[in-house]
Specification:
332 residues, mainly alpha, elongated
Length: 332
């Protein structure tokens, strides 16, 4: 059965790391939810629990697995399509594989109800809160059960904001420590940097599913590490995601190890566009080009940090307090 299911999910790169255990856990979560809904007329204390814990997975009846698994598989497929719309294109880009378990189960329940802009925005707000609040790293089975009931009710307009949305908190100082893809929040911010207006600096091509692969888009430093080393910028500062942006392989080669003030002129010449359009292309990466033209790393860093925080606020749907003290190695 698993081999058949893998054939169904194979075309979707976001599902590349999906395991049979993940599937059974999502089916269990959805099945226990349906069991509780179907017994809703009973007393609250006697209703079967919604669960995706190991014990429930092992106790999942075969007939329930057969009855629910295809809707859950379609839930995974829907999740993959929604994430691609939000610039998460492969399993390597996925912040938390664990978060796909409740997402697939929720979408199995909602079915075609999710094909609505307002409802997609809600499920993505829940998704970003989980990612940027870093809530799915450990001990997540209890959160799965809450998500299953609360997210469905919230999307349908029958409930308050889910606990995952309420629990999520992003610290501004966290940006200074996001340096590698090992962090879920790093992957989340990377996806937010590829919003719908973002265009490659050289080709002016919109960064989308097609160009992501055809142009070998990857995250690269804006102030190159070679220049930063020569100018006394600490690695802890220049290697954070605040100094990184998605660029094509060709663009990154033209950037080289030079100061921004030098490579911007080369890029504009190769791009063959006017000053105003080139300015617009640069700004699509949440930067102020003036700091780059002056090679002002400190001013650039502080300005871009604020721009990224605004994108995070939009994604999470909540304000991020700016009053806390920055961590060592980060500008205030």
């Amino acid at each position: 059965d698993w081999e058949r299911i893998r054939e169904r999910t194979k075309p979707y790169r976001v599902l590349g790391d999906l395991s049979n255990t993940d599937l059974v856990q999502a089916v269990t979560l959805y099945s226990t939810y349906r069991r509780r809904k179907e017994n809703a007329a009973g007393e609250e204390d006697n209703l079967p629990p919604v669960s995706a814990k190991r014990k429930e997975m092992l106790n999942l009846p075969l007939d329930e697995y057969r009855a629910r698994r295809d809707r859950v598989v379609e839930g995974y497929v829907k999740a993959s399509k929604i994430l691609v719309e939000n610039r998460i294109y492969t399993s390597n880009d996925l912040p938390y594989g664990t978060q796909l378990v409740p997402m697939a189960a929720v979408l199995a329940e909602l079915g075609d109800e999710i094909d609505n802009v307002g409802r997609k925005k809600k499920i993505m707000r829940w998704f970003w809160c989980g990612v940027l609040g870093e809530l799915y790293g450990a001990a997540h089975e209890t959160r799965y059960a809450l998500d299953m009931t609360q997210v469905v009710d919230w999307i349908r307009g029958d409930g308050d904001e889910p606990r995952t949305v309420l629990d999520a908190h992003f610290s501004p100082s966290r940006l200074g420590t996001l340096r590698t893809r090992n962090s879920a929040a790093y992957k989340g911010v990377y996806a937010l940097l590829m919003e719908e207006r973002t265009r490659d600096w050289l080709s002016a091509t919109k960064i989308d599913f097609s160009s992501y692969f055809s142009d070998s888009i990857d995250i690269n430093q804006i102030f190159h590490f070679a220049w930063c080393e020569k100018n006394g910028i600490r690695r802890s500062e220049y290697n954070s995601i605040v100094n990184k942006t998605p660029l094509s392989g060709r663009t990154n080669r033209i950037v080289g190890g030079d100061a921004p003030s030098r490579y911007l002129e080369r890029l504009k010449k190769h791009a063959g566009v006017g000053d105003d359009e080139f300015e617009e292309i640069l700004r699509s990466h949440a930067v102020d080009p003036e700091y780059m033209r002056r090679d002002d790393f400190n001013g650039f860093y502080a300005d871009r940090r604020e721009r990224i925080l605004r994108r995070i606020e939009d994604a999470m749907g909540k304000e991020i307090p700016r009053s806390e003290a920055p961590e060592e190695g980060e500008f205030s």
